[in-house]
Protein backbone atom coordinates (compact mmCIF):
# COMPACT_ATOMS: atom_id res chain seq x y z
CA UNK A 1 0.00 0.00 0.00
CA UNK A 2 2.92 2.35 0.73
CA UNK A 3 3.87 3.03 -2.92
CA UNK A 4 0.29 3.68 -4.07
CA UNK A 5 -0.42 5.76 -0.95
CA UNK A 6 2.65 7.90 -1.60
CA UNK A 7 1.54 8.57 -5.17
CA UNK A 8 -2.13 9.22 -4.30
CA UNK A 9 -1.58 11.06 -1.00
CA UNK A 10 1.63 12.90 -1.90
CA UNK A 11 2.18 16.64 -2.32
CA UNK A 12 0.63 16.59 -5.80
CA UNK A 13 -2.45 14.57 -4.66
CA UNK A 14 -5.82 15.52 -6.11
CA UNK A 15 -8.94 16.34 -4.11
CA UNK A 16 -12.09 14.25 -4.58
CA UNK A 17 -13.55 16.63 -7.17
CA UNK A 18 -10.50 16.54 -9.43
CA UNK A 19 -10.16 12.79 -8.84
CA UNK A 20 -13.64 11.89 -10.11
CA UNK A 21 -14.58 14.71 -12.49
CA UNK A 22 -13.21 15.95 -15.81
CA UNK A 23 -13.11 19.34 -17.57
CA UNK A 24 -16.39 18.48 -19.31
CA UNK A 25 -18.10 16.73 -16.37
CA UNK A 26 -18.66 17.46 -12.67
CA UNK A 27 -21.08 14.62 -12.00
CA UNK A 28 -21.39 10.85 -11.65
CA UNK A 29 -24.34 8.75 -12.79
CA UNK A 30 -26.79 6.22 -11.36
CA UNK A 31 -28.09 3.26 -13.34
CA UNK A 32 -31.34 5.12 -14.08
CA UNK A 33 -29.41 7.97 -15.73
CA UNK A 34 -29.65 10.39 -12.79
CA UNK A 35 -26.66 12.70 -12.53
CA UNK A 36 -25.16 13.23 -9.07
CA UNK A 37 -22.68 16.05 -8.42
CA UNK A 38 -19.23 14.90 -7.32
CA UNK A 39 -19.26 17.58 -4.61
CA UNK A 40 -22.24 15.85 -2.95
CA UNK A 41 -19.83 13.13 -1.80
CA UNK A 42 -18.00 15.48 0.56
CA UNK A 43 -18.00 14.08 4.09
CA UNK A 44 -18.34 10.46 2.92
CA UNK A 45 -16.01 7.50 2.69
CA UNK A 46 -15.76 6.40 -0.95
CA UNK A 47 -15.09 2.99 -2.47
CA UNK A 48 -13.77 3.07 -6.04
CA UNK A 49 -14.92 -0.24 -7.51
CA UNK A 50 -12.85 -1.37 -10.50
CA UNK A 51 -14.85 -4.17 -12.10
CA UNK A 52 -16.27 -5.49 -15.39
CA UNK A 53 -19.13 -7.63 -16.65
CA UNK A 54 -16.79 -10.10 -18.39
CA UNK A 55 -14.93 -10.85 -15.14
CA UNK A 56 -16.24 -13.97 -13.36
CA UNK A 57 -14.70 -13.11 -9.95
CA UNK A 58 -16.25 -9.64 -10.24
CA UNK A 59 -19.69 -11.13 -10.91
CA UNK A 60 -19.33 -13.28 -7.80
CA UNK A 61 -18.07 -10.46 -5.57
CA UNK A 62 -20.56 -7.77 -6.62
CA UNK A 63 -23.60 -9.28 -4.78
CA UNK A 64 -21.57 -9.35 -1.55
CA UNK A 65 -20.58 -5.72 -2.08
CA UNK A 66 -24.23 -4.80 -2.75
CA UNK A 67 -25.21 -6.34 0.59
CA UNK A 68 -22.54 -4.34 2.44
CA UNK A 69 -23.46 -1.14 0.58
CA UNK A 70 -27.15 -1.50 1.41
CA UNK A 71 -26.30 -2.04 5.07
CA UNK A 72 -24.00 0.98 5.31
CA UNK A 73 -25.33 3.58 2.90
CA UNK A 74 -28.49 4.29 4.92
CA UNK A 75 -26.64 4.50 8.23
CA UNK A 76 -23.28 6.17 7.61
CA UNK A 77 -21.60 8.34 5.00
CA UNK A 78 -20.54 5.67 2.52
CA UNK A 79 -20.70 5.63 -1.27
CA UNK A 80 -19.28 3.46 -4.03
CA UNK A 81 -18.23 4.62 -7.48
CA UNK A 82 -18.07 1.99 -10.24
CA UNK A 83 -15.05 2.39 -12.54
CA UNK A 84 -15.83 0.07 -15.42
CA UNK A 85 -13.38 -2.09 -17.31
CA UNK A 86 -16.04 -3.13 -19.84
CA UNK A 87 -15.32 -2.96 -23.54
CA UNK A 88 -18.71 -1.80 -24.78
CA UNK A 89 -21.50 0.36 -23.42
CA UNK A 90 -24.15 -2.37 -23.58
CA UNK A 91 -22.11 -4.65 -21.29
CA UNK A 92 -21.50 -1.71 -18.97
CA UNK A 93 -25.20 -0.90 -18.84
CA UNK A 94 -26.32 -4.48 -18.16
CA UNK A 95 -23.77 -4.89 -15.37
CA UNK A 96 -24.35 -1.44 -13.85
CA UNK A 97 -28.10 -2.15 -13.69
CA UNK A 98 -27.35 -4.58 -10.82
CA UNK A 99 -25.56 -1.90 -8.80
CA UNK A 100 -27.27 0.57 -6.42
CA UNK A 101 -24.34 3.00 -6.38
CA UNK A 102 -22.76 5.60 -8.66
CA UNK A 103 -20.44 5.25 -11.65
CA UNK A 104 -18.02 7.21 -13.78
CA UNK A 105 -19.89 7.51 -17.11
CA UNK A 106 -18.81 4.83 -19.57
CA UNK A 107 -18.20 7.52 -22.17
CA UNK A 108 -15.49 9.11 -20.00
CA UNK A 109 -12.79 6.55 -20.78
CA UNK A 110 -10.07 9.12 -20.09
CA UNK A 111 -11.05 9.38 -16.41
CA UNK A 112 -11.46 5.63 -16.09
CA UNK A 113 -7.99 5.05 -17.56
CA UNK A 114 -6.52 7.77 -15.34
CA UNK A 115 -7.96 6.15 -12.21
CA UNK A 116 -6.67 2.75 -13.31
CA UNK A 117 -3.18 4.17 -13.64
CA UNK A 118 -3.30 6.29 -10.49
CA UNK A 119 -4.31 3.35 -8.27
CA UNK A 120 -2.12 0.86 -10.17
CA UNK A 121 -5.01 -1.48 -10.93
CA UNK A 122 -3.49 -4.70 -12.27
CA UNK A 123 -6.40 -7.04 -11.59
CA UNK A 124 -10.12 -6.96 -10.90
CA UNK A 125 -12.26 -6.93 -8.86
CA UNK A 126 -10.41 -4.16 -7.09
CA UNK A 127 -11.94 -1.91 -4.43
CA UNK A 128 -9.99 1.12 -3.28
CA UNK A 129 -11.22 3.11 -0.26
CA UNK A 130 -10.60 6.89 -0.21
CA UNK A 131 -11.83 9.66 2.06
CA UNK A 132 -13.75 12.77 0.99
CA UNK A 133 -10.44 14.52 0.23
CA UNK A 134 -9.42 11.80 -2.21
CA UNK A 135 -6.81 10.39 0.17
CA UNK A 136 -6.18 6.65 0.03
CA UNK A 137 -7.54 4.86 3.11
CA UNK A 138 -7.37 1.17 2.14
CA UNK A 139 -6.35 -0.39 -1.17
CA UNK A 140 -7.43 -3.92 -0.24
CA UNK A 141 -11.16 -3.29 -0.11
CA UNK A 142 -12.08 -6.58 -1.79
CA UNK A 143 -10.21 -8.61 0.82
CA UNK A 144 -11.61 -6.50 3.65
CA UNK A 145 -15.22 -6.82 2.45
CA UNK A 146 -14.86 -10.56 1.88
CA UNK A 147 -13.43 -11.06 5.36
CA UNK A 148 -15.30 -8.54 7.51
CA UNK A 149 -18.17 -7.08 5.52
CA UNK A 150 -19.78 -3.94 6.96
CA UNK A 151 -18.05 -4.51 10.30
CA UNK A 152 -14.84 -3.09 8.80
CA UNK A 153 -16.31 0.40 8.25
CA UNK A 154 -14.73 2.99 8.00
CA UNK A 155 -11.96 0.76 6.57
CA UNK A 156 -9.14 2.85 8.06
CA UNK A 157 -5.82 1.41 9.26
CA UNK A 158 -6.96 2.19 12.79
CA UNK A 159 -10.16 0.17 12.31
CA UNK A 160 -8.26 -2.74 10.81
CA UNK A 161 -5.85 -2.70 13.75
CA UNK A 162 -8.80 -2.70 16.15
CA UNK A 163 -10.34 -5.71 14.35
CA UNK A 164 -7.07 -7.64 14.48
CA UNK A 165 -6.70 -6.92 18.20
CA UNK A 166 -10.29 -8.07 18.81
CA UNK A 167 -9.59 -11.29 16.88
CA UNK A 168 -6.43 -11.99 18.88
CA UNK A 169 -8.30 -11.40 22.14
CA UNK A 170 -11.14 -13.70 21.02
CA UNK A 171 -8.63 -16.49 20.37
CA UNK A 172 -7.04 -16.04 23.79
CA UNK A 173 -10.38 -15.98 25.60
CA UNK A 174 -12.11 -18.58 23.44
CA UNK A 175 -14.99 -20.64 24.83
CA UNK A 176 -17.57 -22.82 23.14
CA UNK A 177 -20.16 -20.07 23.56
CA UNK A 178 -17.88 -17.40 22.09
CA UNK A 179 -17.41 -19.66 19.05
CA UNK A 180 -20.97 -20.83 18.43
CA UNK A 181 -23.29 -18.25 20.02
CA UNK A 182 -24.17 -14.90 18.44
CA UNK A 183 -26.39 -12.07 19.75
CA UNK A 184 -29.26 -13.44 17.65
CA UNK A 185 -28.66 -17.21 17.96
CA UNK A 186 -27.80 -19.54 20.84
CA UNK A 187 -28.46 -22.83 19.06
CA UNK A 188 -27.31 -25.10 16.25
CA UNK A 189 -29.60 -27.25 14.13
CA UNK A 190 -30.07 -30.97 13.59
CA UNK A 191 -30.71 -32.55 10.16
CA UNK A 192 -34.47 -32.66 10.88
CA UNK A 193 -34.49 -28.90 11.50
CA UNK A 194 -34.72 -28.96 15.31
CA UNK A 195 -32.85 -26.35 17.33
CA UNK A 196 -30.23 -27.73 19.71
CA UNK A 197 -29.09 -25.26 22.41
CA UNK A 198 -25.34 -24.70 22.43
CA UNK A 199 -25.49 -25.15 26.22
CA UNK A 200 -26.15 -28.87 25.61
CA UNK A 201 -22.76 -29.17 23.89
CA UNK A 202 -20.72 -27.62 26.69
CA UNK A 203 -18.27 -30.03 28.32
CA UNK A 204 -18.01 -32.18 25.17
CA UNK A 205 -15.20 -32.53 22.63
CA UNK A 206 -16.45 -30.69 19.55
CA UNK A 207 -15.39 -30.97 15.93
CA UNK A 208 -16.08 -27.91 13.79
CA UNK A 209 -16.35 -29.16 10.21
CA UNK A 210 -15.66 -26.55 7.52
CA UNK A 211 -16.83 -28.07 4.26
CA UNK A 212 -18.39 -27.61 0.83
CA UNK A 213 -20.40 -30.67 -0.23
CA UNK A 214 -19.56 -30.31 -3.92
CA UNK A 215 -15.81 -30.15 -3.30
CA UNK A 216 -14.17 -33.46 -4.19
CA UNK A 217 -11.90 -33.68 -1.16
CA UNK A 218 -14.85 -33.03 1.16
CA UNK A 219 -16.86 -35.72 -0.60
CA UNK A 220 -13.99 -38.20 -0.27
CA UNK A 221 -13.63 -37.62 3.48
CA UNK A 222 -17.36 -37.82 4.27
CA UNK A 223 -17.80 -41.65 4.38
CA UNK A 224 -14.80 -42.03 6.69
CA UNK A 225 -16.01 -39.17 8.88
CA UNK A 226 -19.50 -40.71 9.15
CA UNK A 227 -17.94 -44.03 10.14
CA UNK A 228 -15.69 -42.29 12.68
CA UNK A 229 -18.61 -40.32 14.16
CA UNK A 230 -20.86 -43.39 14.35
CA UNK A 231 -18.24 -45.48 16.16
CA UNK A 232 -17.65 -42.75 18.75
CA UNK A 233 -21.39 -42.52 19.35
CA UNK A 234 -21.58 -46.31 19.76
CA UNK A 235 -18.75 -46.04 22.29
CA UNK A 236 -20.77 -43.32 24.10
CA UNK A 237 -18.00 -40.76 23.77
CA UNK A 238 -18.87 -37.14 24.60
CA UNK A 239 -18.17 -35.96 21.07
CA UNK A 240 -20.15 -33.93 18.57
CA UNK A 241 -19.57 -32.45 15.12
CA UNK A 242 -20.97 -29.09 14.03
CA UNK A 243 -20.95 -28.44 10.29
CA UNK A 244 -20.00 -24.94 9.20
CA UNK A 245 -21.00 -25.08 5.58
CA UNK A 246 -19.42 -22.71 3.09
CA UNK A 247 -22.02 -23.53 0.43
CA UNK A 248 -23.42 -20.65 -1.66
CA UNK A 249 -26.66 -22.45 -2.47
CA UNK A 250 -29.26 -23.26 0.22
CA UNK A 251 -30.74 -26.21 -1.66
CA UNK A 252 -27.30 -27.81 -1.96
CA UNK A 253 -26.78 -27.27 1.77
CA UNK A 254 -30.14 -28.84 2.64
CA UNK A 255 -29.69 -31.82 0.32
CA UNK A 256 -26.29 -32.57 1.82
CA UNK A 257 -27.05 -31.86 5.48
CA UNK A 258 -30.20 -33.99 5.72
CA UNK A 259 -28.13 -37.12 5.01
CA UNK A 260 -25.59 -36.43 7.79
CA UNK A 261 -25.77 -37.56 11.44
CA UNK A 262 -24.28 -34.42 12.98
CA UNK A 263 -25.33 -30.84 13.75
CA UNK A 264 -24.77 -27.60 11.82
CA UNK A 265 -24.91 -23.85 11.89
CA UNK A 266 -27.97 -22.60 9.97
CA UNK A 267 -27.37 -22.00 6.26
CA UNK A 268 -25.70 -18.68 5.42
CA UNK A 269 -25.11 -17.88 9.09
CA UNK A 270 -22.89 -14.81 9.08
CA UNK A 271 -20.69 -16.24 11.81
CA UNK A 272 -19.43 -18.86 9.31
CA UNK A 273 -16.98 -16.50 7.58
CA UNK A 274 -16.00 -15.05 10.96
CA UNK A 275 -15.17 -18.52 12.25
CA UNK A 276 -13.19 -19.28 9.10
CA UNK A 277 -11.01 -16.25 9.95
CA UNK A 278 -10.93 -17.07 13.65
CA UNK A 279 -9.50 -20.53 12.96
CA UNK A 280 -7.35 -19.26 10.06
CA UNK A 281 -8.95 -21.65 7.58
CA UNK A 282 -6.54 -22.53 4.78
CA UNK A 283 -7.92 -25.73 3.22
CA UNK A 284 -11.05 -27.83 2.83
CA UNK A 285 -12.14 -29.97 4.44
CA UNK A 286 -11.00 -28.76 7.86
CA UNK A 287 -12.10 -30.34 11.14
CA UNK A 288 -11.10 -28.15 14.10
CA UNK A 289 -11.19 -29.89 17.48
CA UNK A 290 -12.29 -28.02 20.61
CA UNK A 291 -11.64 -29.65 23.96
CA UNK A 292 -14.28 -29.85 26.73
CA UNK A 293 -13.05 -26.41 27.92
CA UNK A 294 -13.84 -24.85 24.53
CA UNK A 295 -10.18 -24.23 23.73
CA UNK A 296 -8.70 -25.34 20.41
CA UNK A 297 -7.08 -28.73 20.79
CA UNK A 298 -6.12 -29.19 17.12
CA UNK A 299 -6.44 -26.95 14.06
CA UNK A 300 -7.32 -29.72 11.57
CA UNK A 301 -7.66 -33.48 12.12
CA UNK A 302 -9.20 -34.31 8.72
CA UNK A 303 -6.03 -36.04 7.54
CA UNK A 304 -5.66 -37.91 10.83
CA UNK A 305 -9.20 -39.30 10.52
CA UNK A 306 -8.54 -40.24 6.90
CA UNK A 307 -5.36 -42.08 7.94
CA UNK A 308 -6.29 -43.58 11.32
CA UNK A 309 -10.05 -43.29 11.91
CA UNK A 310 -11.06 -43.72 15.58
CA UNK A 311 -7.45 -44.52 16.54
CA UNK A 312 -6.78 -40.75 16.33
CA UNK A 313 -9.36 -39.89 19.01
CA UNK A 314 -9.23 -37.82 21.26
CA UNK A 315 -6.63 -35.89 19.21
CA UNK A 316 -4.39 -35.03 22.15
CA UNK A 317 -0.63 -34.39 21.75
CA UNK A 318 -0.02 -37.73 23.45
CA UNK A 319 -2.28 -39.51 20.97
CA UNK A 320 -0.51 -37.91 17.99
CA UNK A 321 2.88 -38.93 19.41
CA UNK A 322 1.57 -42.48 19.69
CA UNK A 323 0.39 -42.37 16.06
CA UNK A 324 3.74 -40.96 14.99
CA UNK A 325 5.50 -43.97 16.51
CA UNK A 326 3.06 -46.32 14.77
CA UNK A 327 3.70 -44.60 11.44
CA UNK A 328 7.46 -44.82 11.96
CA UNK A 329 7.20 -48.54 12.62
CA UNK A 330 4.99 -48.98 9.55
CA UNK A 331 7.49 -47.16 7.33
CA UNK A 332 10.37 -49.22 8.65
CA UNK A 333 8.43 -52.43 7.98
CA UNK A 334 7.36 -51.41 4.46
CA UNK A 335 8.09 -53.89 1.67
CA UNK A 336 7.07 -54.03 -1.98
CA UNK A 337 4.60 -56.79 -1.15
CA UNK A 338 3.05 -54.85 1.75
CA UNK A 339 2.41 -52.03 -0.72
CA UNK A 340 1.23 -53.98 -3.74
CA UNK A 341 -0.33 -57.21 -2.47
CA UNK A 342 -3.93 -57.05 -1.30
CA UNK A 343 -5.80 -60.34 -1.04
CA UNK A 344 -5.89 -61.96 -4.47
CA UNK A 345 -4.42 -58.84 -6.07
CA UNK A 346 -0.80 -59.94 -6.08
CA UNK A 347 0.19 -58.84 -9.58
CA UNK A 348 0.62 -55.91 -11.96
CA UNK A 349 0.12 -55.82 -15.74
CA UNK A 350 2.85 -56.31 -18.31
CA UNK A 351 2.78 -54.70 -21.74
CA UNK A 352 1.32 -57.83 -23.31
CA UNK A 353 -1.49 -57.86 -20.75
CA UNK A 354 0.07 -60.76 -18.84
CA UNK A 355 0.05 -60.72 -15.06
CA UNK A 356 3.44 -60.04 -13.51
CA UNK A 357 3.63 -61.27 -9.92
CA UNK A 358 4.72 -58.73 -7.35
CA UNK A 359 7.02 -61.39 -5.88
CA UNK A 360 8.99 -61.34 -9.16
CA UNK A 361 9.75 -57.64 -8.63
CA UNK A 362 11.12 -57.99 -5.09
CA UNK A 363 14.75 -56.86 -4.86
CA UNK A 364 14.46 -54.34 -7.70
CA UNK A 365 14.49 -50.54 -7.61
CA UNK A 366 10.93 -49.52 -8.46
CA UNK A 367 9.47 -46.21 -9.64
CA UNK A 368 5.77 -45.64 -8.90
CA UNK A 369 4.36 -43.27 -11.55
CA UNK A 370 1.08 -41.54 -10.68
CA UNK A 371 -0.21 -39.99 -13.89
CA UNK A 372 -3.20 -39.57 -16.23
CA UNK A 373 -3.86 -38.91 -19.90
CA UNK A 374 -6.12 -35.90 -19.16
CA UNK A 375 -3.27 -34.14 -17.31
CA UNK A 376 -1.17 -31.91 -19.64
CA UNK A 377 1.90 -31.83 -17.33
CA UNK A 378 1.77 -35.64 -17.25
CA UNK A 379 1.66 -35.91 -21.03
CA UNK A 380 4.61 -33.51 -21.25
CA UNK A 381 6.67 -35.46 -18.70
CA UNK A 382 5.95 -39.01 -19.91
CA UNK A 383 8.17 -38.90 -23.07
CA UNK A 384 11.10 -37.74 -20.93
CA UNK A 385 10.42 -40.55 -18.47
CA UNK A 386 10.23 -43.12 -21.29
CA UNK A 387 13.67 -42.05 -22.48
CA UNK A 388 15.13 -42.22 -18.97
CA UNK A 389 13.48 -45.61 -18.31
CA UNK A 390 15.04 -47.14 -21.43
CA UNK A 391 18.47 -45.76 -20.56
CA UNK A 392 18.33 -47.17 -17.02
CA UNK A 393 17.04 -50.57 -18.21
CA UNK A 394 19.95 -50.85 -20.65
CA UNK A 395 22.36 -50.52 -17.73
CA UNK A 396 20.49 -52.36 -14.99
CA UNK A 397 17.79 -55.00 -15.27
CA UNK A 398 17.09 -54.77 -11.52
CA UNK A 399 14.83 -51.80 -12.21
CA UNK A 400 11.17 -51.40 -13.05
CA UNK A 401 8.45 -48.76 -13.24
CA UNK A 402 4.75 -49.15 -12.44
CA UNK A 403 2.12 -46.81 -13.90
CA UNK A 404 -0.70 -45.94 -11.45
CA UNK A 405 -3.45 -44.32 -13.47
CA UNK A 406 -5.84 -41.55 -12.55
CA UNK A 407 -7.59 -41.81 -15.91
CA UNK A 408 -11.37 -41.56 -15.97
CA UNK A 409 -12.16 -44.50 -18.24
CA UNK A 410 -10.62 -47.66 -19.65
CA UNK A 411 -10.24 -46.20 -23.15
CA UNK A 412 -8.17 -43.25 -21.89
CA UNK A 413 -6.06 -45.60 -19.78
CA UNK A 414 -5.44 -47.90 -22.76
CA UNK A 415 -4.51 -45.05 -25.08
CA UNK A 416 -2.11 -43.50 -22.57
CA UNK A 417 -0.56 -46.79 -21.48
CA UNK A 418 0.11 -47.71 -25.13
CA UNK A 419 2.79 -44.97 -25.10
CA UNK A 420 4.60 -46.56 -22.13
CA UNK A 421 7.12 -49.43 -22.09
CA UNK A 422 6.68 -50.41 -18.41
CA UNK A 423 4.24 -52.16 -16.04
CA UNK A 424 0.94 -50.86 -14.69
CA UNK A 425 -1.77 -51.41 -12.12
CA UNK A 426 -4.99 -52.43 -13.93
CA UNK A 427 -7.39 -49.55 -14.56
CA UNK A 428 -9.68 -48.97 -11.57
CA UNK A 429 -7.54 -51.15 -9.30
CA UNK A 430 -8.51 -50.60 -5.61
CA UNK A 431 -4.84 -50.60 -4.60
CA UNK A 432 -4.47 -47.16 -6.16
CA UNK A 433 -6.23 -45.46 -3.23
CA UNK A 434 -3.94 -46.96 -0.60
CA UNK A 435 -0.84 -46.19 -2.68
CA UNK A 436 -1.93 -42.57 -3.18
CA UNK A 437 -2.46 -42.32 0.57
CA UNK A 438 0.90 -43.91 1.42
CA UNK A 439 2.80 -41.55 -0.87
CA UNK A 440 0.53 -38.56 -0.05
CA UNK A 441 -0.16 -37.83 -3.70
CA UNK A 442 -1.52 -34.29 -3.80
CA UNK A 443 -1.02 -33.73 -7.52
CA UNK A 444 0.18 -35.44 -10.68
CA UNK A 445 2.53 -36.29 -12.27
CA UNK A 446 4.14 -37.74 -9.16
CA UNK A 447 7.03 -40.19 -9.14
CA UNK A 448 8.14 -42.11 -6.03
CA UNK A 449 11.19 -44.36 -5.83
CA UNK A 450 11.45 -47.58 -3.83
CA UNK A 451 14.75 -49.25 -3.04
CA UNK A 452 15.45 -53.01 -3.36
CA UNK A 453 14.05 -53.58 0.16
CA UNK A 454 10.73 -51.98 -0.83
CA UNK A 455 11.23 -48.97 1.42
CA UNK A 456 10.66 -45.48 0.05
CA UNK A 457 13.84 -43.81 -1.16
CA UNK A 458 12.23 -40.54 -2.27
CA UNK A 459 8.84 -39.11 -3.20
CA UNK A 460 10.54 -36.45 -5.33
CA UNK A 461 11.89 -38.69 -8.08
CA UNK A 462 10.18 -36.61 -10.77
CA UNK A 463 12.39 -33.62 -9.92
CA UNK A 464 15.46 -35.85 -9.99
CA UNK A 465 14.56 -37.25 -13.42
CA UNK A 466 13.98 -33.74 -14.80
CA UNK A 467 17.26 -32.46 -13.40
CA UNK A 468 19.58 -35.44 -13.87
CA UNK A 469 17.88 -37.89 -16.22
CA UNK A 470 19.09 -41.48 -16.00
CA UNK A 471 22.10 -40.34 -13.94
CA UNK A 472 19.75 -39.98 -10.96
CA UNK A 473 19.41 -43.78 -10.67
CA UNK A 474 19.04 -45.31 -8.06
CA UNK A 475 17.65 -42.02 -6.66
CA UNK A 476 19.34 -42.36 -3.26
CA UNK A 477 20.86 -39.60 -1.12
CA UNK A 478 24.28 -41.10 -1.76
CA UNK A 479 23.78 -40.89 -5.52
CA UNK A 480 22.62 -37.28 -5.27
CA UNK A 481 25.75 -36.38 -3.31
CA UNK A 482 27.86 -37.97 -6.05
CA UNK A 483 26.02 -35.95 -8.71
CA UNK A 484 26.42 -32.73 -6.72
CA UNK A 485 30.15 -33.37 -6.37
CA UNK A 486 30.45 -34.05 -10.09
CA UNK A 487 28.73 -30.81 -11.05
CA UNK A 488 30.80 -28.83 -8.57
CA UNK A 489 33.94 -30.31 -10.10
CA UNK A 490 32.80 -29.48 -13.64
CA UNK A 491 32.22 -25.82 -12.80
CA UNK A 492 35.10 -25.20 -10.42
CA UNK A 493 37.24 -23.39 -13.03
CA UNK A 494 34.43 -21.50 -14.79
CA UNK A 495 34.39 -17.73 -14.32
CA UNK A 496 31.95 -16.74 -11.60
CA UNK A 497 30.68 -13.75 -13.59
CA UNK A 498 30.63 -12.81 -17.27
CA UNK A 499 29.24 -10.06 -19.43
CA UNK A 500 27.47 -11.00 -22.62
CA UNK A 501 26.37 -9.09 -25.70
CA UNK A 502 22.84 -10.49 -25.36
CA UNK A 503 22.47 -9.01 -21.89
CA UNK A 504 24.56 -5.90 -21.54
CA UNK A 505 22.47 -4.43 -18.70
CA UNK A 506 23.95 -6.65 -15.97
CA UNK A 507 26.66 -9.18 -15.35
CA UNK A 508 25.60 -12.81 -15.52
CA UNK A 509 26.45 -14.84 -12.44
CA UNK A 510 27.16 -18.58 -12.38
CA UNK A 511 24.14 -19.96 -10.54
CA UNK A 512 22.60 -23.33 -9.67
CA UNK A 513 19.25 -23.51 -11.51
CA UNK A 514 17.47 -26.85 -11.61
CA UNK A 515 15.74 -26.36 -14.98
CA UNK A 516 15.66 -23.34 -17.29
CA UNK A 517 15.45 -22.32 -20.94
CA UNK A 518 18.55 -20.73 -22.41
CA UNK A 519 17.78 -17.25 -23.74
CA UNK A 520 20.25 -17.69 -26.60
CA UNK A 521 19.73 -21.15 -28.08
CA UNK A 522 16.24 -21.59 -26.51
CA UNK A 523 17.11 -25.14 -25.44
CA UNK A 524 16.48 -26.55 -21.99
CA UNK A 525 19.30 -26.36 -19.47
CA UNK A 526 19.85 -27.83 -16.04
CA UNK A 527 22.05 -27.35 -12.97
CA UNK A 528 24.37 -24.51 -14.06
CA UNK A 529 23.26 -21.25 -15.64
CA UNK A 530 24.84 -17.90 -16.21
CA UNK A 531 21.93 -16.08 -14.66
CA UNK A 532 20.58 -12.59 -14.05
CA UNK A 533 18.10 -12.79 -11.21
CA UNK A 534 16.76 -9.27 -11.74
CA UNK A 535 15.85 -9.95 -15.37
CA UNK A 536 15.26 -13.72 -15.15
CA UNK A 537 17.82 -14.21 -17.93
CA UNK A 538 19.70 -17.51 -18.40
CA UNK A 539 22.45 -18.80 -20.65
CA UNK A 540 23.95 -22.26 -20.93
CA UNK A 541 27.62 -22.31 -20.03
CA UNK A 542 28.38 -23.15 -23.67
CA UNK A 543 26.39 -20.10 -24.82
CA UNK A 544 27.85 -17.77 -22.22
CA UNK A 545 31.46 -18.86 -22.76
CA UNK A 546 31.32 -19.30 -26.56
CA UNK A 547 30.13 -16.07 -28.17
CA UNK A 548 31.46 -12.65 -29.13
CA UNK A 549 34.18 -11.09 -26.97
CA UNK A 550 32.83 -8.79 -24.28
CA UNK A 551 34.98 -6.72 -21.97
CA UNK A 552 34.60 -7.60 -18.28
CA UNK A 553 36.66 -5.14 -16.26
CA UNK A 554 40.28 -5.67 -17.18
CA UNK A 555 39.55 -9.08 -18.71
CA UNK A 556 38.13 -10.01 -22.08
CA UNK A 557 35.97 -13.09 -21.76
CA UNK A 558 35.85 -14.54 -25.24
CA UNK A 559 32.62 -16.33 -25.93
CA UNK A 560 32.42 -17.38 -29.61
CA UNK A 561 33.49 -20.11 -32.03
CA UNK A 562 34.95 -23.38 -30.81
CA UNK A 563 37.85 -21.58 -29.21
CA UNK A 564 37.31 -19.42 -26.17
CA UNK A 565 39.20 -17.39 -23.63
CA UNK A 566 41.98 -19.26 -21.87
CA UNK A 567 41.34 -22.34 -23.97
CA UNK A 568 37.76 -23.13 -22.94
CA UNK A 569 36.20 -26.05 -24.82
CA UNK A 570 32.41 -26.35 -24.72
CA UNK A 571 30.60 -29.58 -25.53
CA UNK A 572 26.87 -29.95 -24.97
CA UNK A 573 26.01 -28.10 -21.80
CA UNK A 574 29.50 -28.46 -20.32
CA UNK A 575 32.54 -26.19 -20.77
CA UNK A 576 35.97 -27.30 -19.66
CA UNK A 577 39.48 -25.99 -20.08
CA UNK A 578 41.39 -27.63 -22.91
TrEMBL record:
GO terms for molecular function: thioredoxin-disulfide reductase (NADPH) activity. It catalyses: [protein]-dithiol + NAD(+) = [protein]-disulfide + NADH + H(+); [protein]-dithiol + NADP(+) = [protein]-disulfide + NADPH + H(+). It is an enzyme of class 1 (oxidoreductase). Pfam families: C1_2, Thioredoxin_8. InterPro entries: DC1, Nucleoredoxin-like, Thioredoxin-like_fold, Thioredoxin_CS, Thioredoxin_domain, TryX_NRX_thioredoxin_dom. Keywords: NAD, Oxidoreductase, Repeat. Its EC number is 1.8.1.8. This is protein-disulfide reductase.
Amino acid sequence: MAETSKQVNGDDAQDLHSLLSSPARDFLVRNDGEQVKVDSLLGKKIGLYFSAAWCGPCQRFTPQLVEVYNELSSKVGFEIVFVSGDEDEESFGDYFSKMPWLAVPFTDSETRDRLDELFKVRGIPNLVMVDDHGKLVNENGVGVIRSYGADAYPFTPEKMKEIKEDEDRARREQTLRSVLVTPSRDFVISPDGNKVPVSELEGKTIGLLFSVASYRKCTELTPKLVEFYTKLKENKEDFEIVLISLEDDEESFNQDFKTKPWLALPFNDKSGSKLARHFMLSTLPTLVILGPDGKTRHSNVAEAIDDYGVLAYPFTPEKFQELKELEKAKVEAQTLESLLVSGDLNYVLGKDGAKVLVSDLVGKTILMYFSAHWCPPCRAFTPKLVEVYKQIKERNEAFELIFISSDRDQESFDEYYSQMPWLALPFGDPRKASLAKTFKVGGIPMLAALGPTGQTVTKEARDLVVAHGADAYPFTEERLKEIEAKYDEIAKDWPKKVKHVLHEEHELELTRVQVYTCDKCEEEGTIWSYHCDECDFDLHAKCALNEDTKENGDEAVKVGGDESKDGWVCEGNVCTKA
